[in-house]
């Protein structure tokens, strides 16, 4: 399945704690309803998902949408190796393919769980390689459809 979005460098993120610089995202405003659809079905059938930390299935879920809209992160606040190309593709329309299978991720020392779908794009690979250098394996991208709403650290 395909989606189109607009590449944006250093987007303003109201409420973002920490560094606002060196962030690049593909904004996907038309995917808002798609994310709502996947959140609905994920909450309706939570037992289909396994907590990666405890290996238990979920009995119920209350997912909230991402605060900054549906997007794909390319740069997450880390200084690029090649800063001369920063902003070079601002506003470019990017086409991505996504896998509609929802997965779950758990951040260490955090009680939140992020529910997401994998994204594939040769163009995103090219842009990230230009910024951060080429890796042996391709860069991984995803669309977060929602997260549990606990938002506090463990311990």
What would the keywords be for this entry?
single chain; 155 residues; alpha+beta; eight-stranded antiparallel sheet; 2 helices; 8 strands; 30% strand; globular; disordered C terminus
Description:
The protein is of the alpha+beta class. The protein has one domain (2-148). Helices cover 15% and strands 30% of the residues. Strands 1, 2, 3, 4, 5, 6, 7 and 8 form an 8-stranded antiparallel sheet that branches. The protein is globular.
Q: What topology emerges from the helices and strands here?
A:
Blueprint: E1 2-9, E2 23-27, H1 32-44, E3 63-64, E4 71-76, E5 93-98, E6 103-106, E7 113-120, H2 122-132, E8 141-148
Antiparallel strand pairs: 1-2, 1-5, 2-4, 3-8, 5-7, 6-7, 7-8
Helix content: 10-25%
Give start-end ranges of low-pLDDT stretches: 151-155
In round numbers, the mean pLDDT is 87
Distance between the termini: 40 Å
How would you classify the quaternary structure? single chain
How many structural domains in the coordinates? 1
The helix/strand series, from N terminus to C terminus, equals EEHEEEEEHE
Strand proportion, as a percent range, falls in 25-35%
What is the radius of gyration?
16 Å
Largest sheet composition: 8 strands, antiparallel
Tally of helical runs: 2
Principal-axes geometry comes out as globular
- Report the strand count: 8
> Structural class per helix/strand content?
alpha+beta
Write a brief caption for the model.
This protein has helices at residues 32-44, 122-132, and strands spanning 2-9, 23-27, 63-64, 71-76, 93-98, 103-106, 113-120, 141-148. It is of the alpha+beta class and 155 residues long.
């Amino acid at each position: 399945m395909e989606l189109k979005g607009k590449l944006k460098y250093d987007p303003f993120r109201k409420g973002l704690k920490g560094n606002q610089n060196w962030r690049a995202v593909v904004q996907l405003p038309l995917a808002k309803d798609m994310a709502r659809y996947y959140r609905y079905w994920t909450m309706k059938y939570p037992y289909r998902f396994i907590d990666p930390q405890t290996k238990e299935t979920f009995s119920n879920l209350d997912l909230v949408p991402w605060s900054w809209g549906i997007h794909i992160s390319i740069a997450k606040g880390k200084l690029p190796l090649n800063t001369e190309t920063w902003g070079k593709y601002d506003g470019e329309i990017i086409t991505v393919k996504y896998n509609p299978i929802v997965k779950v991720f758990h951040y260490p020392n955090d009680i939140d769980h992020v529910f997401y779908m994998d994204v594939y794009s040769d163009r995103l690979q090219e842009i990230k390689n230009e910024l951060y250098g080429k890796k042996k394996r391709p860069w991984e991208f995803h669309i977060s459809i929602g997260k549990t709403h606990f938002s506090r650290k463990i311990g």
